[in-house]
Design a protein that fits this description.
Elements (H helix, E strand, L loop, with lengths): L7 H31 L3
Length: 41
């Protein structure tokens, strides 16, 4: 099971690549979570 997990860095890259599309749907939530999402980027 663990072998299929993404690394934290890969997951952050995935989030950053999908945030623009997500922002169009739920922009207010993205703004509230931005600090947590980008804290380690």
């Amino acid at each position: 099971m663990l072998r299929d997990w993404q690394s934290h860095m890969d997951y952050q890259q995935y989030l950053l690549s999908t945030l623009p599309e997500f922002f169009n749907v739920k922009g207010d939530r993205v703004l509230r979570l931005e600090g947590s999402i980008s804290k380690n980027a």
